[in-house]
Each structure stands twice: as C-alpha cells, then as structure tokens.
Amino acid sequence: MAREWQNEATDMIEEQIVGRDVKDTRVLAALASVPRHLFVPSEHASSAYVDRPLPIGSQQTISQPYMVAKMTELLAAEPGMRILEIGTGSGYQSAVLSALGLRVWSVERIASLAESARKRLGDMNFDVTVIFGDGRLGHAENAPYDRVIVTAATGRVEPEWDRQLVRGGVLVAPLNVTTGNQRLLTRENLEHGFRNTWHDYCKFVPILMGLDPESPSSS
Ligand code: SAH
Q1: Does the pLDDT value for residue 213 go beyond 90?
Q2: Distance between CA atoms of 106 and 142, rounded to whole angstroms?
Q3: N or C terminus: fewer CB in 10 A for the chain?
Q4: 154 lines ligand 1 (CB under 6 A)
C-alpha cells in the first residue's frame, strides 16, 4: 500500500528542508499542509516528494521542495500580506503561500498551465488568483504588493516589479549572474532606495518574453 502523503511530506521536510537551513516553523507547517503529489502529472506522483524539480508539461517544471521552502522563508511574509508570483506553473508555490495566510496573485504565460493551476487550486480551496499574462509586466490591476516572488530565472529585476512593490516590501527572484549560473536575490524597497542581498546558487527554467504563442489569446 502506498504510504500516506502526509508521512512523505514530513520526511521531505525533515531530510531536505530542516536538514539544510530552513527553520521558519510557519513555512514548515505550510509545506506540511500542501499535498505536493496533486501538483505533478500522475506519472510522477510517486516521485512528488523527492529532492528535485519534476516536469509538469510544456517544458516547464515544479520547483524542488527545498527551493520552494527557501524562497518562501526569504520572503519573510506575514499573514494577510498581498503577494505577486511570476510563473504559476503547477500552482504549488502559490498553494504554499496561500497556506501561509497570504493573498496570492500569480501570473503565467502558458494558457494551459494557467488554466490547470487555476482549476487545481480551486478544487483544493486555495484562494489564489491565477492570471494568464506576461509576468515581466507584473499585474498592475491589483498592485501594490507587499511581496513579489519570481519563480523563473531572469536577467534583470523588471521595472514593473519594483514599481508594484510597497515601501518596505521584499522581492525574491533567481537572477542570471554569469553564463549558466543563477543566484537567489532578495531586494528590499527601503526609504532611500532598493537594497539587494545575494543567497544560494540555484537552477530555474528561464523567464520568456510575452505570451506563449501556442496559447489562445482569449484565455
Ligand atoms: N512556481 C511554479 C514553478 C515555476 S516554473 C510551481 O510551483 O510549480 C516557471 C514558470 O514560469 C513556468 O510555468 C513558465 O511558463 C512561467 N513563465 C516563464 N516566463 C514567464 C513570463 N514572462 N510570465 C509569466 N510566466 C512565465
């Protein structure tokens, strides 16, 4: 008989997350409450809790559990805050943020992924707004946000992300630093300007320009 998913999630948290350096108990509790196996294609469900990203179709991936945990901890968010995610993918990161008590808007450029994440999150009662769009522009309609998280590797911090972040807000993103190398960046919007701090090296799929050309434009 398959193990209960809660046991797999507990082991994942102990071995891959606490075993490294993520200690924030609220982040750990949020991760423990989200059934990651429901965010991966059924053929990968048995690997859902292993220490790696997994394919989710359209050449995209659900991030490695540790990366989701690390980025969530770096956000240092409080319940009730408004957060913008760039790169919905499977919707797993959005679900973890929602489980933390955040109000989540998430932008995805591939219509089929946006649609399936929206349905999946709705079926599980996660209160997340998924937007089909080019996340390089953020999502001005509901700005400003207390936090911005980018889950695709980007060459730069887009001007709209800075503009849509409240004073005192924090952005977390994987930045391309040198060829083939990416590093997590936290960027705080302080009174006298932005302050950047560099963290772990990482590996994300690249952010792409505009809407996916195969997506129906009216989705
Ligand atoms: N956070 C996701 C994983 C993200 S993978 C999860 O938890 O599953 C990166 C995602 O960013 C992919 O789905 C990709 O289509 C999306 N993406 C890439 N460029 C984008 C852009 N310009 N705007 C919005 N989404 C983008």
Answers
A1: no
A2: 11
A3: N
A4: no
